[in-house]
Structure formats: C-alpha cells, structure tokens
Amino acid sequence: MAGRDRSRGLVLPAVVVAALVLGGGVLASMFRQGARETAGSAVPVGPGAPAAPRQPTLYCEFYNFVGRKPKVGFYFTIAHEGVSPAYEQVFQREGDGAQTDFGTDGASRPEWAFDGSDSPATLRSPDQAIQINLYGYKPVAGTTWFEAGLRSVQYLNLDGKCRRSAA
User: What is the DSSP letter of 141?
Assistant: First the structure.
C-alpha cells in the first residue's frame, strides 16, 4: 500500500507540470500571433507623443507547398476607405525572418492598386509583379481570416490567408 500511495503522490505533480507546460505553449503561441498581427501598427506612447488615429490594416500570409510554413507575408494600412481605398505597404516579411520595412526613412510607402470590381478582388504591386487575390474579401468586415492567393514570378502561385483589422 505504501508503494501505491507514493505513486499517487507523484501523479498529481506530473499532471500539474504537464498542464503548466501546455498552457505556456498556448500563451506563447497567442503572443506570437498577436505580435504578428499588430506589427507595424504601434502608436508612439509617452509624454509629448501625439495620439495618432489608427488606420484599418490588412495582413496577408502565404505558405510554401510542403508543411504550410509561411513563405512570405505582406502588411498594409488602408487609407481613405470607400470608393478608392489606398493600400500602403508597411512591410514584407520572408519565411526566413528577413523583413523589409517601407516608409521608415521618410519616403512614401508603396501603394498597391485595389480592384474590388473583379471576383475575386485583387491587390497589385506598383510594378505589377505581384498580385494578391482576395477571395470573399469584404472591406468593411471585422477581423476574420479569409482565403487569398499570391500570383508572382518570384513566389509562384501560393495559397494563403488574409485578415483585415478595423481601426
């Protein structure tokens, strides 16, 4: 009996440790997701910092053909929504972690052409080398993920998803 009591005493701490490890993994995943979604939209905070209004954003992520690992991501701010919205590219992140930021040196950000009259709606890079197909995109919708497709010579045809965030 003493041996059986001792093993029961070890099971409870093992279950608690396993729950803590699992919970920590979930929290870390949520943190990474939140950081990815809010990257580039930080507003300066502190004494004397102007309170800038937040713009709606669009983040699109495309995957390689093998393990659904992100290959490239594009992050846009959406200015003057309505008849002719402007999608300004904030950054482009490669699957290896390399990131190109736009507009940080005072230069204007590249503005992608949006065409909502087609089905699917499309975003085209200023040089027309990259096209993002936005399946089921609703510019005034909430923050749900929807299907997207990347068409380019550099990245080939990749499947992915996009998410629009409200201001």
Answer: -
Hunting for tokens 């380019």 — which residue is that?
152
In whole angstroms, give the CA distance from residue 64 to residue 157.
Answer: 10
CA-wise closest residue to 59 among 92, 86, 32: 92
Single-letter residue type at 45: V
Pairing of strands 57-63, 99-101: unpaired
Residue 62's φ and ψ, nearest 5 degrees, are -125, 145
Contact present, 148 and 59 (Cβ < 8 Å): no
Yes or no: say if 100 and 73 are a contact pair by the CB < 8 Å rule. Answer: no
User: Which of 104-116 are b and which e, b meaning 16 or more Cβ less than 10 Å from the residue's Cβ?
Assistant: eeeeebbebebeb
The residues near 136 (Cβ < 8 Å, ≥ 6 apart) are 120, 146, 147
What pTM was estimated for this model as a whole?
A: 0.66
User: How confident is the model over 20-55, as pLDDT tens digits?
Assistant: 344 444 333 433 444 444 444 433 334 444 445 578
- Tell me which residue of 134, 128, 126, 133 sits closest to 109, measured CA to CA: 126
Residue 159 has phi, psi (to 5 degrees) of -90, 155
